[in-house]
Amino acid sequence: MPGSVQSIERAAAVLRLLAAAPNGLGVADVGNALGLAKTTVHGILRTLHQVGFVEQDRSGAHYHLSDAFGRLGESYLDPNELRSRAINWADSLAARSGEVVRVGRLDGSKVVIVHHVFRPDDSDQDLDVGTTLPPHATALGKAVLAYDASGAARPKRLEAFTTRTITDPARLAEELATVRSRGWAGEFEEHTIEIAGIAAPIRGLGGLVVGAVGLIGRIERICDSRLRHRADLVTMVRATAEAIARDLRGDS
Amino acid sequence: MAEQYVAAVDQGTNSTRCILFDRRGRLVSVAQREHRQLFPKPGWVEHDAAEIWRNVTRVVPAALRQVGAEPGQIVAIGITNQRETSLLWDRATGRPIGNAVVWQDTRTDRLVAELAGDEGLDRFADLCGLPLNTYFSAPRLKWMLDHTPGLRARAERGEVLFGTMETWLIWNFTGGANGGLHVTDVTNASRTMLMNIASLEWDDELLAAFDVPRAVLPEIRPSSGVFATATEVLPGVRIGAALGDQQAALFGQTCFSAGEAKCTYGTGSFLLLHTGQEIVRSKHGMLTTVAYQIGDEPASYALEGSMAVTGSLVQWFRDGLGLIHTAAEIETLARTVDDNGGAYIVPAFSGLFAPHWRSEARGVIAGLTGYITKGHLARAVLEATGFQTLEVVDAMNADSGIALTALKVDGGMTANNLLMQFLADLLDVRVVRPMVTETVSLGAAYAAGLAVGYWPDLEGLRSNWHRAGQWLPNMDPTRRATEYANWQAAVQRTFNWIRPDQ
């Protein structure tokens, strides 16, 4: 059968078996049913467990399909889980860059801020967690919008916040293609006058983008003298996104 | 010149970690390994000390590898550790004698009652600052010596060494059976019940009361100061500090002056208030403890409010009840409802710590009705940590006569925004999270870096502290009072559950 991937076929067979066994199955049960070696079955079950499709009972002896398997269209990562995985790395980015750091994720047609670290200058600042941003007008938004295959988040009308906001769908598509090709998103007065930002996508297991991390601040600090986003900050943001992703994938 | 770092080794209850910090106190890399929790009998909790040392030998190189650092770039090692967990080992072979007995272990509850006798649980408080409780090391050490045939005689002959985890680590870092150094620091020693809180030396009266031979005890050193040069894992690097984890967090939060306080939210939670060079005796169930000692300067003291079960209640909700998959999901579940629906969970799993100190108490879920959903229970789980903090803050305000104006928080649970807001609402003060949440490791790094001159002084460290997040109080005072009264009524219902004849 040219072109098909054997391990995926086997994983599909395992899922079918588990779906038909409400009380769950052990490694040996699955191995016997499929005529596969125990080590092979164990590897498949462990991977399916890692991606959240199957769960183990308390003794660890039996596997069954997870609730999440029936709700695959929903976001697989809990927003509070994303925050707890991101918190150390976001702190570190804020300390190094000296700027406000935020972690966001797509929720419907908005980007919700799930974590916010103050600019480390001890000035008065308010926590923005739970507030939403327009995806097309912010770096954090573009960094997740660029990887949203469903198109559900793409607003029908692109609202203008400043004269620099991208309001033409074709230009937005171009901009998102740029984000994908270079791996980060920039913001330059598109949402707030005199404010610029840099954000990068956070990729979970299998490359799925689960959110983005980014910083924002005044243009003169975020951009160089030629008004380009500072390369050192871009590197820091991308390294932070990668560190959070490593943590999420469990291969730190 | 290549960048230099301080390596903090945090030997915690669930895992051992190594974190590298740079000169500005910024976290550079983290490596972590969990160790097994052994539960041989109900109420018993043990760790395999050999496994823990093995983990140290793995996480330290792993942390260096992450940033491509050579051992020569590490200027000092700072050690911090789960406190009160007690271990005996053979001086000649370096092998542990049995497992380490963990701070949560309650096997000594009968022994503690016997030791209290007619004089009560506070009979040693004047000497060591602590009430008799299964939490501290001395009853545990006595238990180990009493229950292993021939061990006390061997201990008297100097063949057996006692240590809390920092002592075990330093001994191994400096060669173990081949010339290892047997030392502890004032903060860890202050949790044994064997050290005189004023003289900072082992106290003969306490040693006699617990029947502990002096020969098993390590030498007590200042928390910050060069202990020795490591020969293992990071050969040639100086060990510059050792502090108990909560004291390390106080140091990492740069609470260097009297009146400054922090609360660390982890498995258990611990609020420490710096009281300067003064030894404040609590009348409201707080512990008197050593905050730190830098070189030959006078020691600084602290009042401590210890809550045994906070983060571990979330773990129980996850592992025991299976209502969530990850600890962070409790916030998602709690946000499915607007309030606790009238339910309160008092997690007196092994009695209550501060300010009650009731070892016979056991947990309750109070206010249970058919209306209560798992969302309400999730909220009650988080609120339990808030209410316990309020009890401790109330007691501390009464002891110190100073009302807390802001609370500096750290630890894993500070990622929980719902809890942080509830704390601000309940305490009616600002709750502030610093830029580095890993304050336990940071404190150990600071104390070690100070000892070797990597950082010049405490003021330099203060300038590294920045606010990363802040929650402001926003709760109606009447509601606050009602909620607290409900909680206190629920706490009353946990008392006297374990009866003497059981």
UniProtKB/TrEMBL annotation, chain A:
PROSITE patterns assigned: HTH_ICLR, ICLR_ED
Alphabetical keyword list: DNA-binding, Glycerol metabolism, Transcription, Transcription regulation
SMART domains tied to this protein: HTH_ICLR
Keyword Lyase: no
Domain HTH iclR-type: 5-67
An annotated Gene Ontology molecular function: DNA binding
Domain IclR-ED: residue ranges: 68-250
Source species: Kribbella albertanoniae
Biological process annotations from GO: glycerol metabolic process; negative regulation of DNA-templated transcription
InterPro entries given in the database record: GAF-like_dom_sf, HTH_MetabolicPath_Reg, Tscrpt_reg_IclR_C, Tscrpt_reg_IclR_N, WH-like_DNA-bd_sf, WH_DNA-bd_sf
Keyword DNA-binding: yes
Superkingdom: Bacteria
Protein role: May be an activator protein for the gylABX operon.
Protein name: Glycerol operon regulatory protein
Coiled-coil stretches noted in the UniProt entry, renumbered to this chain: none
Automatic annotation (TrEMBL), chain B:
Alphabetical list of InterPro entries matching this protein: ATPase_NBD (IPR043129), Carb_kinase_FGGY (IPR000577), Carb_kinase_FGGY_CS (IPR018483), FGGY_C (IPR018485), FGGY_N (IPR018484), Glycerol_kin (IPR005999)
PROSITE patterns, per the entry: FGGY_KINASES_2 (PS00445)
Catalytic activity: glycerol + ATP = sn-glycerol 3-phosphate + ADP + H(+)
UniProt-annotated binding residues for ADP: T13, R17, T267, G311, G412, N416
Binding site for ATP: T13, S15, T267, G311, Q315, G412
Binding site for sn-glycerol 3-phosphate: T13, R83, E84, Y135, D245
Domain Carbohydrate kinase FGGY N-terminal residue range list: 5-252
GO molecular function list: ATP binding; glycerol kinase activity
Keyword Signal annotated: no
Residues where glycerol binds: R83, E84, Y135, D245, Q246
Stated regulation of activity: Inhibited by fructose 1,6-bisphosphate (FBP).
GO biological process: glycerol catabolic process; glycerol-3-phosphate metabolic process
A Gene Ontology term for the protein's cellular component: cytosol
Keyword Transferase (UniProt): yes
Family in the record: Belongs to the FGGY kinase family.
Protein known as: Glycerol kinase
Annotated organism of origin: Kribbella albertanoniae
Native organism taxonomy: Bacteria, Bacillati, Actinomycetota, Actinomycetes, Propionibacteriales
Name of the gene: glpK
